[in-house]
Write a structure and sequence with these properties.
Blueprint: E1 5-6, E2 9-10, H1 11-17, H2 40-52, E3 54-59, H3 65-80, E4 84-88, H4 93-103, E5 110-111, H5 115-120, E6 125-129, H6 130-134, E7 145-149, H7 160-168, E8 174-178, H8 190-196, H9 202-209, E9 210-212, E10 220-222, H10 227-235, E11 238-241, E12 259-266, E13 274-275, E14 281-282, H11 291-300, H12 302-314, E15 321-325, H13 328-337, E16 342-343, H14 350-361, E17 367-371, H15 372-375, E18 387-390, H16 397-404, E19 416-423, H17 427-454, H18 458-465, E20 474-477, E21 481-485, H19 488-493, E22 500-506, H20 528-545, E23 546-557, E24 559-561, H21 563-566, E25 572-574, H22 576-586, E26 590-597, H23 601-608, H24 613-618, E27 629-635, H25 659-667, H26 680-684, H27 688-701, H28 706-718, E28 738-739, H29 748-754, H30 766-776, E29 782-785, H31 792-799, E30 803-808, H32 811-829
Parallel strand pairs: 3-8, 3-11, 4-6, 4-7, 5-6, 7-8, 12-19, 15-17, 15-18, 16-17, 18-19, 21-30, 22-23, 22-29, 26-28, 29-30
Antiparallel strand pairs: 1-2, 9-10, 13-14, 20-21, 23-27, 24-25, 26-27
Length: 838
């Protein structure tokens, strides 16, 4: 047994190092140094964010994020020098100016437009807007600390703002983000904040917490078994609080008033009846409108919606109203209907816009007509306004909820009334908004529950995460197999030296998938480097247990790196198979070559969208090729290297393994049996389901012509016989090292699917395992798979007269694989008539 220690770290210590807890990179500030005007929950949040160095404040509306951001910046510049930058939406700087002067008694931060202005500013804290940073006027790396106000602009990974900010803010020592509304319907968007804060690489976080849909690209959902760990991880760098008591403080003054939401459904009048091409009138529109139809209906219904808005306003002459709208045409209609309404719009002079916003916030203006994208974030209107009307609706929940909370926030003293006006055809949009609202409340509840349970200390979170380490060992023996539920690293270390005749396995593809919620899972690593560090504990023992001269066959596949995660803008390849070759050679295995197993490029493109026909036609230079699978062949040196025979050779009887078969295998060309070749006309008339096998045989038996191959595919496509779900004209192989006839549907997953059980994400095909066992082992040999999965390898070993050993960490795979082993052993051990003869 080899000691479980590498690089001065025990295996258990390595597993502990995998816990996803955000590291602290900041500094501690005593409570006495925090400005006394801050309330207890605000003081605790600022100290926590300063100690973390790079942190997020996800606090409910009205808890005072503005004053916390200002104090955080003041502490950073006081203790670390330099200047701090606050990036904020347009129309919000007056909030920071007011809090700085009235609450913190400090000079208001200077608003800057260029780096020259930032460097010349006399204040240590400066402000600018998102557009100036994104478009290149401001360099964030000049500043010691940066704070993003209303940072929900980062929630979209593919947005221009996010991609730009990720690079521009890289390496800023102290970073803070603040927003009250993390995305409610896509948990994975929370990791975009982590990517910006340099807590964890976005691609790594996606792999760690989200499961991939092997049938559809970019369709990721949170692993159910990872949800608890996900919230613990997020709470280690993001502070979610809905009220002071979430941190153990008094809630006095932080009670929200009642909220009433009125929905006004508007139906188009007869004059808006549309007619189809047959002259049939359509009064009730289809709810599932196209974008074009929806836009037209928005325009046609403006007068009806504005009339309803005017009615509501005139029925409440004493109340102040925010009139939320989306279209310029709506703004003009509002102004015609209510001439007293004060407008805020994009092309308006900035000073005039700011003057109108401040006037409404201070109660000097009764009616404010503005768009959610302009005034929906950062503005505090709760002092004099408790009414808002949405003149229309759309699917943008973040803008919607932000707009509501301009008045529905702490320090609001009156019942808040929201009137939502929508058309009958927009019922689906309304239901989508309601659903996202429920999801938003659920997310907030989950996060505040974690904060209340574990507080601000990461040590409590680590103790909770330790429960996801280790498994209860289970061993089941049959006459011809041994199945073990355990960590293969721990289990292989206990196996006897030189006890295995053949190792066949499909290793985890680095951090591409996680198979279990346990930290013992080798897929549970942040990158290739950490993956191979854990493999360093296993690989020496694989060499040790393998008999001298025998073979280790390792199934691998290169990994696709998507451009939105790497920043290249295009998919590239991680040469994982090459890294594996180097890894195993480092541990003493002799590399013998590899078998290439071709895959279906059309199916692959359906899963990854990286080889698209349309993109190829636009620019072929960004196109790669299909990603095959490989079986890497390694050998443990025999005791006697003079002739290099294994200590126990794999022998074959020449009567069974003929010279003819050897020549065909060794030469690598597979010729026809003598049957005549199929003509194109015969091939074209074959049923689609038969084309794949028929063309492969045709390809093997015929001198290859690329032009002819393309022409055939074009004819099949013209006749509707070129499916989009699989490739029917894949080229056949005439080389023994490239296997083109693996039945990709013939895996234990086929049975799993029928039984509606969990499917193994990367199963080994039965054909592959069968060939490897036949080529590299004798009858009665021990065949070992340290990553047993559904026990494909030991099951095929039993089927082929060998003894199979499999280790599996996932309890569901282990249980199901054990069923296959027992089933196969019953077949093998079932007596026949000949057992009783003689």
């Amino acid at each position: 047994m080899i000691p479980m220690r590498t690089n001065s770290m025990t295996y258990n210590e390595f597993l502990h190092s995998k816990m996803a807890i955000a590291e602290k990179s900041g500094f501690k500030v005593p409570d006495s140094e925090i400005h006394p005007v801050l309330k207890p929950h605000q003081r605790a949040a600022v100290r926590w964010a300063l100690e973390g160095g790079r942190r997020a404040l996800f606090e409910s509306f009205g808890l005072g994020k503005t004053i916390q951001e200002l104090e955080w910046c003041r502490q950073v510049t006081t203790h670390k020098g330099g200047k701090a930058l606050i990036v904020l939406p347009l129309g919000v700087k007056q909030e920071f100016t007011r809090d700085a002067v009235e609450l913190l008694q400090m000079e208001p931060p200077t608003y800057v437009r260029t780096m020259a202005e930032a460097k010349a500013a006399e204040t240590d804290i400066v402000m600018t807007n998102y557009e100036r940073v994104r478009d290149g006027d401001i360099n964030p790396k000049y500043f010691t600390g940066t704070s993003l106000d209303e940072a929900s602009v980062l929630r979209s990974f593919g947005s221009k703002t996010y991609q730009t900010f990720l690079d521009k803010f890289q390496g800023v020592p102290y970073k803070l983000v603040s927003t009250a509304t993390p995305s409610p319907n896509k948990y994975k968007e929370l990791i975009h904040y982590a990517g910006y804060l340099e807590i964890m690489d976005t691609g790594q976080a996606l792999t760690r917490f989200f499961q991939r849909d092997s049938t559809k690209a970019n369709n990721l959902t949170l692993y159910p078994h990872k949800e608890a760990e996900f919230w613990l991880w997020v709470s280690s760098w993001g502070l979610f609080i809905t009220k002071p008591s979430d941190l153990g403080f008094d809630d006095t003054g932080y009670d929200l008033p009642p909220l009433t939401v009125n929905y006004h459904r508007i139906q188009l009048s007869d004059e808006h009846i549309t007619y189809d091409r047959d002259g049939q009138g359509q009064i009730i529109r289809d709810a599932a409108l196209s974008l074009k139809d929806a836009a037209r209906e928005k325009r046609e219904s403006i007068d009806l919606r504005v009339a309803k808005m005017k009615e509501i306003v005139e029925q409440n002459p004493e109340d102040h109203f925010i009139l939320w709208h989306d279209l310029e045409a709506e703004r003009h209609a509002i102004k015609r209907a209510l001439p007293d309404a004060v407008e805020v719009y994009g092309s308006q002079d900035y000073d005039k816009r700011e003057q109108n916003v401040i006037g409404f916030a201070n109660g000097d203006i009764r009616l404010l007509a503005t768009k959610k994208e302009i005034s929906g974030q950062g503005c505090n209107f709760q002092r004099y306004c408790h009414r808002a009307i949405f003149v229309g609706i759309d699917y943008e929940f973040n803008d919607f909820i932000q707009a509501i909370h301009r008045i529905y926030r702490f320090m609001q003293t009156k019942e808040v009334i929201i009137d939502i006006i929508y058309m009958e055809t927009e019922e689906m949009i309304l239901q989508a908004l309601k659903k996202k609202w429920r999801q938003h409340n659920y997310l907030t509840e989950q996060m505040t529950k974690v904060i209340r349970e574990y507080g601000l200390s990461n040590s409590n979170r680590m103790h909770r995460m330790e429960r996801s380490m280790g498994v209860e060992r289970v061993e089941v023996k049959g006459n011809n197999y041994l199945a073990i539920h355990n960590d293969c690293v721990l289990e292989t270390a206990k196996m006897k030296e030189n006890s295995v005749d053949l190792i066949v396995t499909s290793i985890p593809f680095s951090n591409h998938y996680e198979y279990t919620p346990s930290y013992n899972d080798l897929g549970h690593n942040k990158d290739n480097e950490e993956f191979f560090k854990q493999m360093d504990y296993l690989s020496p023992n694989l060499l040790r247990v393998l008999k001298p001269g025998r073979v280790f066959a390792c199934h691998v596949k290169d990994r696709i790196l998507f451009g939105n995660a790497t920043g290249t803008g295009m998919p590239t390849m991680d040469p994982f198979h090459a890294l594996c070759i180097a890894h195993y050679m480092k541990h003493g295995f002799q590399y013998m070559g590899m078998i290439t197993i071709v895959t279906d490029v059309v199916r692959e493109n359906n899963q990854t969208y990286r080889l698209g026909w349309s993109e190829q036609c636009k620019d072929g230079t960004k196109m790669s090729v299909g990603c095959p699978e490989y079986v890497l062949l390694f050998r443990k040196l025999p005791s006697d290297t003079s002739n290099a025979y294994a200590d126990t050779p794999v022998t074959k009887e020449k009567s069974a393994y003929t010279r003819a078969q050897w020549q065909i295998d060794a030469h690598g060309y597979w010729r026809s049996s003598g049957d005549r070749l199929l003509t194109k006309e015969e091939l074209m008339n074959m049923p689609v389901e038969d084309l794949q096998a028929v063309y492969r045989k045709y390809s093997r038996d015929t001198v290859y012509s690329y032009e002819e191959h393309v022409e055939l595919a074009k004819k099949l496509d013209a006749d509707g016989k070129l499916p989009s779900s699989f490739m029917v004209v894949a080229p056949g192989s005439w080389n023994m090292d490239v296997w083109d006839d693996i039945n990709r549907m013939r895996t234990l997953n086929t049975s799993q699917s029928r039984k509606r059980k969990a499917m193994h994400v990367c199963p080994l095909q039965l054909d592959t395992v069968e060939r490897l066992i036949n080529r590299y082992s004798n009858k009665g040999d021990v065949v070992f798979d340290p990553f047993g999965g559904l026990m494909t390898v030991p099951m095929m070993a039993v089927k082929m007269g060998r003894y199979g050993i499999g280790i599996e960490l996932n309890p569901d795979y282990f249980r199901d694989g054990l069923g296959y082993l027992k089933q196969e052993e019953l077949i093998r051990d079932e007596p026949t008539l000949f057992d009783f003869v003689g």
